[in-house]
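User: I'm curious whether this sequence folds into something compact or stays loose and floppy. Could you predict its structure so I can see for myself?
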Amino acid sequence: MAAACVVTAAHGALAWLALNWRPTEAAPDGPPPAVMIDLAPIAAAPEQPSHDVAQGPQSIEERVDTTDEPVARQSEEETQPPPMPPSER
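Assistant: Here's the prediction. I'll summarize afterward.
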């Protein structure tokens, strides 16, 4: 219960501080609070520099043989694993 009171009081104090905050006035002999700089408008984007780099090796695509040769298929007997020997009990 005491912790809830402390948290509520802290939040209330921060809310009061935020509502009653007054910005400080600038010193009379100090610099102005803001500096304004006028920039000339740019008519177009600047030119992009050219990238003079050496080109890499040319890629050569491998030719795929597309002849209609029959594909050797394994029979079901060749693809099945050998039978397990019977276990002795």
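Summary: The radius of gyration is 42 Å. The chain has a mean pLDDT of 78.
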